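Review form for a predicted model. The reviewer records the input and the model, then writes brief findings.
Reviewer: anonymous (R2)
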Amino acid sequence: MRAVGLLVLAVLLSVSPAWAAELVLFETPTCPWCIKWHRDIGVRYDNTKAGHLLPLRRVDMLKPLPADIAALPHVASIPTFVIVQCGQEVGRVVGYSSEASFWRELAEALNEAGQPDGC
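Model under review:
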């Protein structure tokens, strides 16, 4: 985990403070993998570097989608983590199996998103 954490930190530090994005978690209250993510990572996510740069927004898939994200590409499985900047999806992590894989996949999604262009 330490090496993966350092990789994520390196990617996040390369992102400009103007990133102005959020990490949208699509979930349901009874999803076992969502519950596992909250237990493993969610309880401290807000206090991580990722949490400071990509504030977490939780969306219950059993309720109507908020209007500002309703036009995002379809979410087929939960949990799905979508990096949203200026109302547009710039990265996605589908599923959750372990803490190490989550941080690795989040770093990859951020790397693929590249530097922000601004809104």
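Findings: The mean pLDDT is 86.
Further findings: DSSP finds four helices and four strands in the chain.
Recommendation: see findings above.
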